[in-house]
Amino acid sequence: MLMRKMYEIMVATGHTKKRDGSQLDLLSVHETSQEPLPEANEDINSAHSLSVEAAYINQNFSQQVLVRDGNKVNFDEPNPFASEGEEVASVAYRYRRWKLDNEMYLVARCEVQSVLDVNKQRSCLTLNALNEFDPKYSGVDWRQKLETQRGAVLATELKNNANKLAKWTAQALLASADFMKLGYVSRIHPRDHFNHVVLAVAGYKPKDFAAQINLNPNNMWGIVKSIVGLCMKLEEGKYVLVKDPSKPQVRIYQIPADAFENDYVEEPLPEEEQAQPPAEGADGEEAATISNDVTDKQIDNQA
C-alpha cells in the first residue's frame, strides 16, 4: 500500500516544514507490498494502525537494547531540547553540512542512537526494528525462518518495505554511522498488537547494506539536488511538495500564503462520539537528542 507524502515548502527563505497533524513521523508498514491492507483505521492491521504500532516498537527497541549500567558517553554540550534536570532517551543528533554546488549548501540534523567500543575506538550506531504483524500478509513466518533462512526474511522485507529500509540506510549514511542494527520484532500473537518479542538483531555496515539493497548514494544526492534546484527557481511563496502515491513522480503546487491556517475555534465532539484510547499500550519513551555540528562537535549528554 502506497501512502501519500506531503511537505510544505517556503521558497526563498530555505524553510521547509510539515503540515500540522502530519503522519510523516510515523513509520510505514507494508508500503510497497502487493498484498492490500484493511482500509478501516480501527482495524489493527490497517496502514494507520500499523504505522502507530511500528513507531512505538522502534521507540522502545532503541532504548531496550542499550546497556544501562551507568556507563554513558557524555559530550561537551548539554541536550538542547531537554528541560533542566529532565532525563531523556538516548539519541544523538549530529548537525552536518554538504556542498551541493558553489552557491548551495545543505545542513541536516542526523541521528544516532548508541555508541560501541570497537578495537578501542568509539563507533556510532543507528537502531531500528522491522516488525512482523501477521505472517499471512508477508507469507513468511519469522519464528520458523529467521534462524535458518534469514536472507529470505530480509528479501521479503525488502519487497514489502523497500522505502522504509532505504530510508533507514540513508539516515545511517548521512549520520556517518559506523554500524546499523536491525531488530526483528514480532507480535506475541497476531491479534495482539500491544505485546511483542524481539526474535533477533542483525548488524550491518551502512555502505555494505546500501549496496546489498541497491541503494545508490549518488542517485540520492541527485534527487535532492534536483528538487532543491527546482525550488530555488520558484518565486518567493508557499508551496506543497506531494509524492504521487501510484507513480514515481513528485509534484509541487503553489498555494495561498494563508493556506492551512484556521482562525475559528473548533468545537469538541460529544464525549460519546470521541475515539477512546486503547486499554493498554507500549510504554514509549520520548525521543531525545545529542548533536554534532558541521565540524563534528558533539552535542548532548548521553548516547
UniProtKB/TrEMBL annotation:
Positions with biased composition (Basic and acidic residues): 294-303
Superkingdom: Eukaryota
InterPro entries recorded: eIF3d
Keyword Cytoplasm: yes
Keyword Transport: no
One protein family per Pfam: eIF-3_zeta
GO cellular component, one term: eukaryotic translation initiation factor 3 complex
Compositionally biased tracts (Acidic residues): 263-274
GO MF entries: RNA binding; translation initiation factor activity
Location of the region described as Disordered in the Swiss-Prot/TrEMBL record: 263-303
Alphabetized UniProt keyword annotations: Cytoplasm, Initiation factor, Protein biosynthesis, RNA-binding
PANTHER family tied to this protein: EUKARYOTIC TRANSLATION INITIATION FACTOR 3 SUBUNIT 7, EUKARYOTIC TRANSLATION INITIATION FACTOR 3 SUBUNIT D
Protein's UniProt name: Eukaryotic translation initiation factor 3 subunit D
Species of provenance: Lupinus angustifolius (Narrow-leaved blue lupine)
